[in-house]
Specification:
Elements (H helix, E strand, L loop, with lengths): L1 H22 L8 H21 L7 H22 L11 E5 L3 E2 L2 E2 L1 H16 L4 E5 L10 H11 L7 E4 L5 H19 L2 E8 L5 E5 L7 E6 L3 H10 L6 E5 L6 H17 L4
Parallel strand pairs: 1-4, 1-8, 4-5, 8-9
Antiparallel strand pairs: 2-3, 6-7
Helix pairs in contact: 1-2, 3-8
């Protein structure tokens, strides 16, 4: 066990070096691999100390360590298990979550989401894309606007898109997108033009769009699908579908570990 923990620590250091060489220091939260390496080295030393002093170590310490490892493993399984999503061909609204821009240009991660959105819109021309993302301090425009420009350039109809330009986190993405969807649904439920039928007062009777169950989905990176769906369920979209797009294979493991920390944080804060 000691050698295994020490070996995992070395792998964490090597993976950190790969991330830095591959993408520079632009990849956020990359330091977590050095932190994990330090923790694993401590666990390796602690395991040796425990073996030699098993009667002197309180029972709750190894139980706590094992519990933390189990929780981390379960969360990782939930992330991997939801990575494929549950793509549905009959969605009325598809929330497309934004990602960091390079100035006013879409990043590689965001491009993958948008290309998936283009594919979905071509197969489902009646679905409304809700482009969700505000403007960070180092971005030249809102993520939603950059997404809109990319999609229109690639042939998506303007009337097939709604922009949500306020959000700065996944929780806000979902919450504000829900508001935009509700606003759009209200406009679609207004009386239509008179259809020629006569009412009891002798005036033409207006046709009203009937009530229906609106089907909503969320499109994001594969590692992010689980958290996005859970947040949506917490914020009033209980039956939301998830659609995942591919992630850079070199950074996939890093994003999953980072996502694990984000899931635990959002759970503790009551966001999911």
């Amino acid at each position: 066990m000691t050698l295994l923990l020490a070996g995992l620590a070395v792998l964490c250091i090597l993976y950190y070096a790969v991330i830095v060489i591959y993408s520079g220091f632009a990849t956020s939260f990359s330091f977590i691999w050095l932190f994990m390496a330090g923790v694993l080295f401590l666990l390796a030393g602690g395991n040796e100390f425990y073996i030699r002093n098993v009667k002197r170590i309180p029972f709750w310490i190894p139980v706590a360590v094992v519990t933390v490892c189990v929780v981390f493993g379960v969360v990782m399984l939930l992330i991997f298990g939801n990575a494929a999503g549950s793509e549905n061909p009959d969605l009325d609204y598809l929330i497309v979550l934004g990602a960091r821009l390079n100035g006013d240009k879409v990043s590689s991660s965001l491009k993958k989401r948008l290309d998936k959105a283009i594919e979905y819109s071509e197969q489902n021309p009646n679905a409304i894309l809700v482009l969700s993302g505000g403007q960070d301090k180092d971005e030249m425009t809102t993520e939603a606007q950059a997404m809109f420009d990319y999609l229109t350039f690639n042939g998506v109809r303007e009337d097939q898109m709604i922009l949500e330009t306020i959000s700065t986190s996944t929780v806000e993405n979902i919450a504000y997108s829900r508001v935009r969807i509700e606003e759009d649904i209200k406009t679609r439920k207004r009386p239509a033009q008179p259809d020629g039928r006569m009412g009891i007062n002798g005036m033409p009777e207006a046709a009203v769009v009937p009530e229906k169950e609106w089907k909503i989905g969320v499109l994001t990176s594969d590692f992010h699908v689980f958290r996005a769906r859970q947040i949506a369920k917490k914020w009033g979209i209980p039956d939301i579908y998830g659609i995942g797009c591919d992630t850079d294979p070199v950074l996939f493991v890093h994003f999953c570990v980072r996502e694990c920390a984000a899931i635990l944080k959002d759970k503790l804060m009551g966001n999911m």
